[in-house]
Amino acid sequence: RWRPTVASCQQPDLAVDRLILIHDNHAAALATTITRDIARISPVTEVVPTLMNLRNPWDFEEVYGAMHAFARGYRFDPEAEEYLVNITTGSHVAQICWFLLVEAHYIPARLLQLSPPRRDDPVAGQHSIIDLDLSRYDRIARRFRVERDEGSSFLKSGIATRNAAFNAMIDRIEQIAIRSRSPLLLTGPTGAGKSLLARRIHELKRARHQVAGGFVEVNCATLRGENAMSTLFGHVRGAFTGAVAARPGLLRTADKGILFLDEIGELGLDEQAMILRAIEDKRFLPVGSDREVASEFQLIAGTNRDLAAAVAAGRFREDLLARLNIWTFELPGLRQRPEDIEPNIEFELARHAEPGGGLVTFNREARAKFVAFATAPDASWSANFRDLGAAITRMATLAPGGRIDEATVAEEIVRLRQSWRRPGNVEDGLETLLTPEQLAEIDPFDRVQLAEAVRVCRASSSVSEAGRGLFAASRNRRGTTNDADRLRKYLARFGLDWAAIRA
User: Fold this and answer.
1) What does 72-118 look like in DSSP terms, one character per residue?
2) Residue 428's pLDDT is what?
3) Is residue 112 within 8 Å of residue 7, measured between CB atoms?
4) From residue 425, how far is each of 134, 181, 398, 414 by CA, in Å?
5) Please, which of 27, 47, 188, 408 could form a disulfide with 23 given CB 3.0 to 4.6 Å?
6) Helical segments of 162-266, H only
7) Top-confidence residue, 136 or 488
8) Rounded distance, CA 420 to CA 427, Å?
9) What ranges make up the beta strands (E) of 367-498?
10) Distance between CA atoms of 14 and 7, rounded to whole angstroms?
11) H-run or E-run covering 350
């Protein structure tokens, strides 16, 4: 009769040099019989009986652990040998574990599938070899590419971005989002789209049945003191004055879903310590409780701060940053993606039409005028996509007859430039001193340096004090110490002087 292990050595076009025969104590006699029979029908095959005893062959952890230990301990030499894995008898758990070990490349092998003979076939039956490298299968590979592109487009909210670096980053985020439950850290300026991206990651994982819970978002900048602890971790009734009822907290609300902590750099050190433990142990103490609660969530954190600098200043825990820094992505601001402004204009117009605002379009001249302004070097976009979205909403609302004309665009350009010149704006020092034409002639490298010089000048009471602040490190290496003259000459290169800046 047909026996699959023996038949593996009877295939006319498959030469088996060595067969590792894994069995437990109960099958020792059967292993001896198989070894003897293979020696008769295939003398060139070396049979190596290998003992693997399992207390419970249906215990996934035990079975996988034993097989994993075997795979790690076996001296595979893929350069010299070709390996096949044939799963014959054993529980379904054993079969699944072998499959996983091969698919994950712990065992550098392909699967050997044996089929019993038909009536007119020899006793050996047939065999086929299954390669688990799915990328080798054209139709499967094409399907995966389509799904990858759909996932990437999903994360970009359907916008066909033209920025190669941003495209590559979104592709990598999509790849990680569907393969990992580790924390993600999204950095970048305010309005760069961290919140929207986090929400889309949740929707992507939910569509693939990787999370069952909801998306819980909290702006950590709004959390202070005892309210922060209660909001995040919940509290029991009577925990403090005013706690008339128990509160689950956002971490428990995010169970089996995603928790997005925006501006995580604003959390206090005590909250950071509890967040760290909740990430690592999935357990934490509600305020006023002596009993821990559990919540299985994936964390996405967002910040516009330099967390490494915050660690150095003692405002952020180093161990929490290390835990968050597994996957870190810096989202570029709108100024770093000028080629994406046009498709985002269309996206914002479509979004304006959704709640019943009606479809609004630009006339050709107005569109050209706004795009030229939006992509010019002096366009600050200090609030990034929030600025752009607000601008489109205002123009669409004021558009006569549903068409944005040049007059509407001109009015919006004035409004945006005024908002970018507010005190505290990063570009404030240059845009109030130089014309757009002058700014367009300054390299980005020089612009950053000049902006810092202007900031120091405005914070100093004299040109000498500003010079000492700007040239503190280099003045000790020079024979003269006329920092004021050095600063005046630097400013003159850009047509500026101390009085103009102070004014």
Assistant:
1) HHS---TTT--EEE---SS-HHHHHHHHHHHHTTSS-EEEEEEE---
2) 47
3) no
4) 52, 37, 27, 16
5) 27
6) 164-177, 194-207, 225-233, 250-253
7) 488
8) 7
9) 403-404
10) 11
11) helix 341-352
